[in-house]
Design goal:
Low-confidence stretches: 383-387
Structural class: alpha+beta
Number of strands: 13
Distance between the termini: 17 Å
CATH architecture of one domain: 2-Layer Sandwich
CATH superfamily of one domain: ATP-grasp fold, B domain
Strand order of the largest sheet: 11-10-9-8-7-12-13
Shape: globular
Length: about 375
């Protein structure tokens, strides 16, 4: 019996079913988001004359719905926009070797894999139920609790693997936390979490919202020529929140190469729901909006140290050869230095395209589509599909 052949057939069939499921779920989500975005949608004539011919060369015909979606807000009609289901079911697994996902994305090892990229100070961490201090010395749970309680200043405790839609992220003041309460935080987070000092952000970033540490999302693509910045945008929380994450409300706005913040922004509110398998999932309700009253930034506002942020992204991405497309979250501290928070190995389709109003891989989108649909040059590196 040819087990390798059987496994490959089984794998390919399971991928087909997964692709169908993703298409159905993501299309449903887009339909629900579309009314809130509003705007003038693409016409049937524009769809047939601009969108369809572009995708015919790849043997695909994407639904018009996706181009209504991308066209909302500013009527940008660009056939290079990539529908969600193509991205998640086909292109992302092609450019990123997802069998390495969980190990690479463990926040507890970021200081090991990216030692020369500035990060928040580690207080302590827990990996697979083992506790460590900031220098990777193994310690007891009680010692970890005591280290947290003796820490000076606010801390953030969060999951280190599988963020669970960014739930269970807490901002803690040790002076106002008892030993019992700290034990309860540890219990909630389980066997994989990290405790870090809360970052003091740059005064310019604080103008967008002083209550949250506002984050700069940079989506980068690594090619044979080096690392290319595909898009950038800012993520700002609402005034009631201390932390910006996927499960919170707030707003996003694209960032130009020189750091200028777009005055066109997307407000969002996250809604949790149960999918067909009874698993908790998240959907963001988005609308186009304007700069909120609590933001003191003026027209022409520029994100500080954006050149340094991009330089750090390009340096860090070269350490992740299994992942060609990565979403990086940075902020800028009071000294004007970029601080790395985390990376996402499946960057959101929304942040990659809708918010920044650019195609998935920026100016290199056609190059990636040509490679995936026609040349398949990455097949030789696709260990995940060969095992």
């Amino acid at each position: 019996m040819d087990y390798e052949k059987e496994y490959r057939e089984y794998y390919e069939k399971s991928m087909e079913y997964k692709a169908l499921y993703l298409k159905e779920e993501l299309t449903k989500e887009a339909k629900e988001l579309l009314p809130g975005l509003g705007g003038e949608f693409i016409s049937e004539k524009e769809y047939e004359q601009i969108i369809v011919p572009f995708w015919e060369k790849y043997g695909r015909k994407p639904d018009k719905l996706w181009y209504d979606y991308f066209c909302s807000g500013e009527r940008i009609i660009d056939p290079r926009f990539v529908p969600s289901y193509f991205y998640y079911s086909e292109i992302l697994p092609y450019v990123n070797n997802l069998q390495f996902w969980h190990a690479a994305a463990d926040k507890c090892i970021f200081d090991i894999t990216l030692p020369d990229i500035k990060q928040p100070e580690t207080v302590c961490k827990c990996t697979a139920g083992f506790y460590y201090d900031a220098n990777m010395n193994m310690i007891s749970r009680k010692e970890a609790v005591n280290i947290c309680l003796s820490h000076k200043g606010q801390m953030v405790i969060k999951p280190s693997i599988g963020s669970g839609f960014s739930k269970n992220i807490y901002c803690i003041d040790p002076d106002e936390t008892s030993e019992k309460e700290m034990e309860e935080y540890f219990e909630k987070l389980g066997s994989y979490f990290i405790v870090q000092s809360r970052i003091e952000q740059h005064l310019e970033l604080a103008k967008l919202n002083p209550s949250t540490v506002n984050t700069i999302r940079v989506n980068s693509l690594m090619t044979d020529e080096g690392v290319y910045i595909a898009s950038m945008h800012i993520r700002v929380g609402d005034p009631q929140s201390k932390i910006v994450h996927q499960g919170s409300s707030g707003w996003h706005s694209s960032i130009e190469e020189d750091g200028t913040l777009s005055e066109k922004l997307v407000t969002h509110k996250s809604v949790f729901y149960k999918n067909r398998f009874g698993e908790e999932s998240i959907r963001e309700v988005m609308t186009w909006g304007e700069l909120p009253d609590y933001a003191s930034a003026k027209s022409g506002y520029k994100i500080p140290a954006i050149d340094k942020v991009c330089e750090a992204v390009c340096k860090a991405h070269k350490r992740l050869p299994h992942f060609r497309f990565v979403g990086w979250d940075f902020t800028v501290d009071t000294q004007g230095e970029p601080v790395f928070i985390e990376f996402n190995l499946a960057p959101s389709h929304l942040s990659c395209q809708l918010i920044v109003r650019k195609p998935l891989f920026g100016d290199k989108t056609e190059e990636i589509l040509e490679d995936y649909f026609i040349h398949k040059t990455l097949k030789k590196n696709d260990l995940g599909r060969m095992l």
